[in-house]
Amino acid sequence: MKRTKMFALLALSCWGSVVQAEPVTLANAWQQLQQVSDKLAADGEQVNAAQAEQQGAKDLYLPQLSIEGTYTRLEKPLELDLTKLNPLASMDLSTLPAQYAAIFASIPQSMFVTPFTEQEVYNASLRAMWPIYTGGQITAAQAIREAQVAEKQQQHELTRRELFTQLIDRYYAVDVSQSLVVTQQQLVDSLTTHYQHALKMEQQGQIAKVELLNAEVALDDAKVTLGSATRQMEMAQIALRRLLHEPSADAVSPMFVLDTPPSLPQVTQLTLAQHPALKLLHSKEEQAKGLIDMENGKYKPTVYLYGNYTLYDDDSLVAEMTPDWMVGVGVRVPLISRDGRSGKVLAAKSALLQARYTKAQTTQDLSLLVDQSYRQMQQAAEEISSLNTSRKLAQENLRLRELAFNQGLATSVERVDAELKLSAVNTRQLAAKYRYMQAYAQLMAVSGQLDDFIGYSKQQEMKDAR
C-alpha cells in the first residue's frame, strides 16, 4: 500500500497538483518539534525564571549589608554654654571678692561655649542586619519558591504532552489525506477505464445512452472529490510544516494497530501516579501551606543581629565621642498591624482547600479520560477488523459486476455502485485507523508513555521496510 501510495503521489506531482516534500519519520518529527516549539521554549523560560527566584530565596539567610551616607544641616550648631550649668549658672559675682569678680568679668563669653557639631553634619557608615529568627517566614518563603519551580516544571511537561498529541493529529492527518488521494485517484482511473469501455459499447449499440451518461457523471463526481481530497492533503501538509517550522515535510511513518492492546489498569495506575496535572496541583498545595506558615510567622517575634561601622565623619566633638563601631542584638515583637494578617491566613487556607478539591476532581477527570481513550481505541480497532471483511466483499462484488457488465448482464449503474462501495469502505477504514492513532496517542500521552508510542512506530517502519 505504501509503494502504491508513493507511485500515485508521484503521478499526481507530474500534474503539478502535489509538491514533493522531504520525508520525515515520526520519531524525527517529535525530536524536531521539541527543539523548535516556541510554546515549549516559553514554558522552559518560565522554569528558568522560577529556578532563579528559588536561588534568590536562599539569600534570605544572609546578612543585609549596606553603606549609608547622610548630610544634615542643623538650624544651628549644637553647643554647650558652661555659664548655664551649675555652679556657674547660680553664681552671684557680687558675693565674690573683688579681685575674683574682676577675673571672671574679664573672661570672654565665647570661652565658656563648647561646640559639639558644625551646622552641617556629614556621616558615612557601614551597616549590617542579620535575622537569626523570623518565626519561620524565611523557611516558608523558600518552600514556596521550591513549589513554584515544581509547578513550572509540570506545566512544561503538560505542554510537551499536548504538543505530542497535536503532532500525532497533524502527522497522521497527512498520511490519511495522502491515502485518500490515492484511493480517490484509483477510483478516477477505474471509472475512466469504465467510461471509455462504456463509450465503445454505446457506439456499438450494446448499451443505452443513459448507461454512458451514468458512467460519465460518476467519473466527473470522482474527479471533483479527487480535487477536494488533494486540497485537504495540501492543507494537512501545510499544518505539519508550520508545526515543525519546516518549509518541506512529508509523513512517511505508517499507521499501525497493536497486536496486543495496553493494560487498562496499568495505564490508569501510571496516569494517577505521575500525571503532571496532579503534580502541578500538589505544588499548589505546597505553596498554599507555605503562605499559611509565612502569615503565621508574622505573629511571632523577630530576632536579629545588627552592627554599624563608621567610615567617615566630621571633626566635631560628637564624632570624637561616638565609637567607630558597635554591634548588638535586637528583637521586634508585632503587637498591632494593619497588613491584614488574619485575612491573609484565611485566604491561604482557602487556597489550600481549593487545590485539594481541584486535585480530587482532576483525578476523576483523568481516570475518565483514560477509560474513554481506551474504549475509543478498542472501538476503532474493531471497526478496522470488521472493515477488512467488508473490503474483501466489496472487491469481490466489484470483480463480479465488472464481468457482468462486460458480458451485458449488468448495468453501468450497478458497476459504478460497486466501485463506489469499495472506495467508501477504504475511506471508512482509513478514518478508523486515524481515530485509532488519535486514541492510542492520547492514552500514551496521558500516562506518560510517549517513548512507547515512538517505539511502536519505529517497529512498524521496520516491518514495512522488509
From TrEMBL:
<dbReference type="InterPro" id="IPR003423">
    <property type="entry name" value="OMP_efflux"/>
</dbReference>
<keyword id="KW-0812">Transmembrane</keyword>
<dbReference type="Pfam" id="PF02321">
    <property type="entry name" value="OEP"/>
</dbReference>
<keyword id="KW-0472">Membrane</keyword>
<dbReference type="InterPro" id="IPR051906">
    <property type="entry name" value="TolC-like"/>
</dbReference>
<comment type="similarity">
    <text>Belongs to the outer membrane factor (OMF) (TC 1.B.17) family.</text>
</comment>
<protein>
    <submittedName>
        <fullName>TolC family protein</fullName>
    </submittedName>
</protein>
<keyword id="KW-0732">Signal</keyword>
<feature type="signal peptide">
    <location>
        <begin position="1"/>
        <end position="21"/>
    </location>
</feature>
<keyword id="KW-1134">Transmembrane beta strand</keyword>
<keyword id="KW-0998">Cell outer membrane</keyword>
<keyword id="KW-0813">Transport</keyword>
